[in-house]
Specification:
Length: about 475
């Protein structure tokens, strides 16, 4: 086992603190201790970030880019060490941990390069008068990242903020701290000036309540659940601060009558098994045209049943343990509730063994709209398949929940694709595949799924403020 000792990073120091155990969900053993920041640590982090901002915001964009790229090169060199730590703390198979790190690197690289293109514009007006719109770093960012992607989720925030010239206080997940810790270490080893990137852990509610009102903090960036997101966004707005909220989803998937149900079923099983369904854009509600319903159900269930579940360190495992006992409880409750309301269990449905948080890929069909899983985000390996008789019905059902993050559709018809793209109320739609975003494209939600975007040119813009300079020539 190769799990790192963990420290806080504040200014130019690594700090050891008492804290809480980190658990490997594959065997429920303690693998480390996550240090918890004291109030003094938080005050020091604020002071350090103020200093860091002063230096970093005045560093040439090309130099900022070069520093981030040096850190990425170190992360790539250390991929085996980081991937092992992520699998041990979070449960996903090692191959998926490597892919998460490569994705995180891609995001950091793209943001780093885009930081050189944070252009403003010049607006012509009356003769002798010039209006110049500048984009400036927003300032110190308080960022909160979740446990499902221990490295790539904090990488989104670190990339956007650093490439835009901001300093950060990053509170990463206490349950999966090593992904963020090892990434931050690479930045420090790459020569990032002190105070630009500070890493803390602790009691999430205490930390957010203390940091968000601080005048120095100018932006709150959060990825996590809708209730916590609403709480933090309202705290930020009470102090007149903008926030970026990347919250939960309940992604609909429309399978049209002209789609190949076997191809769609195989793709759905693979996508749903990724990170054991603990992904905000995981496909969850399948609305399938009558004509292909039975074949889709069969293909999806067969492929789902064939997924090997086991310890992420075992190369044979295609899906790992759930990350924490809360997810296991929710899966068990949702399956029991759906079945009690008449849903058909096509595969899965029961915890595997009693040591390690393993739950199989589970497909339920004919699930009533009032079932718990149809209303709340499973955030785990449960897929719900229902029959629809028209595309209008499928779109209407897709939009029936308060979520609006990702959506998917399978069709060979350009007309259907256009109708779905126009009508589905989500931030990201993928047609005939399940990749909802890449580094170059904006990712984020509508409705309760949040606001603001990560990735794409929009991602960096969230970390800037616009200033208009109006200049009359003399
Ligand atoms: P939770 O609501 O307890 O916590 C969600 C995240 O917010 C965690 O990372 C937690 O540390 C943090 N958090 C909680 N209270 C906080 C506070 N007051 N201030 C700052 N941070 C706080 O839920 P959970 O059981 O950890 O996760 C399950 C739910 O979270 C899922 O149903 C899913 O909707 C959501 N989630 C979403 C994403 C995403 O990518 N959008 C990622 C992880 C979790």
């Amino acid at each position: 086992m190769n799990y790192p000792n963990l420290y806080l990073r504040i200014g130019d120091t690594w700090r050891a603190r008492d804290g809480k155990p980190v658990i490997n969900p594959a065997n429920e053993t303690v693998i480390g201790t996550v240090p918890h920041a004291t109030r003094v640590d938080l005050d020091d982090a604020l002071a350090a970030a103020e200093q860091g901002l002063r230096v970093w915001s005045r560093t040439a964009p090309a130099e900022r880019t070069a520093t981030i790229l040096r850190a990425v090169a170190l992360i790539r060199e250390r991929i085996e060490e980081i991937a092992t730590a992520i699998t041990l703390e979070q449960g996903k198979p090692l191959t998926q941990s490597r892919l998460e790190i490569l994705r995180g690197c891609d995001i950091l690289e793209w943001d780093a390069q885009e930081g050189r293109r944070l252009y403003g514009r010049i607006i012509p007006a009356a003769p002798g008068m010039r209006h110049t719109v500048l984009r400036q770093p927003i300032g110190v960012v308080a960022a909160f990242s979740p446990w499902n992607f221990p490295m790539s989720s904090p990488a989104r925030k670190v990339g956007g903020a650093l490439a835009s010239g901001c300093a950060l206080i990053l509170k990463a997940s206490e349950e999966t701290p090593a992904g963020a810790y090892l990434m931050v270490k690479a930045f420090i080893d790459a020569g990032l000036p002190p105070g630009v990137l500070n890493l803390i852990f602790g009691e999430p509610a205490e930390i957010s309540q203390y940091l968000i009102p601080q005048p120095l903090v100018r932006l709150v960036a959060f990825t996590g659940s809708i209730p916590v997101g609403k709480h933090l966004a309202s705290m930020a707005s009470a102090h007149m601060k903008p926030s970026l909220m990347e919250l939960g989803g309940h992604a609909p998937v429309i399978i049209c009558a002209d789609a190949d149900p076997e191809v769609a079923g195989a793709a759905a099983a693979l996508s749903k098994s990724r990170n054991a369904g603990q992904v905000c854009v995981s496909p969850t509600r399948f609305y399938v045209a009558d004509a292909v319903y039975d074949r889709f159900c069969q293909s999806f269930a067969e492929r789902a049943a064939a997924i090997t579940v086991g310890d992420g360190m075992d190369p044979a495992s295609q899906m790992g343990a759930l990350a924490n006992p809360r997810r296991l409880e929710v899966m068990e409750t949702m399956v029991a509730d759906a079945r009690a309301r008449g849903a058909r269990l096509l595969t899965g449905g029961q915890r595997i063994g009693n040591l390690g948080l393993f739950f199989p890929l589970t497909v339920l069909a004919d699930v009533p709209d009032d079932a718990l899983a149809m209303r709340e985000e499973p955030f785990g390996p449960i897929a719900l398949v229902n029959r629809v008789s028209s595309l209008d019905e499928a779109i209407e059902k897709s939009n029936a929940l308060p979520f609006g993050l990702a959506g998917y559709a399978f069709t060979q018809s350009a007309t259907n694709a256009d109708r779905i793209s126009d009508g589905m109320e989500v931030g990201n739609i993928s047609i005939n595949h399940f990749v909802s975003s890449i580094a170059e494209t904006p990712m984020g939600g509508v409705k309760d799924s949040g606001f603001g975007r990560e990735g794409g040119i929009e991602g960096l813009q969230g970390y800037t403020v616009v200033k208009n300079v109006s200049h009359q020539m003399l």
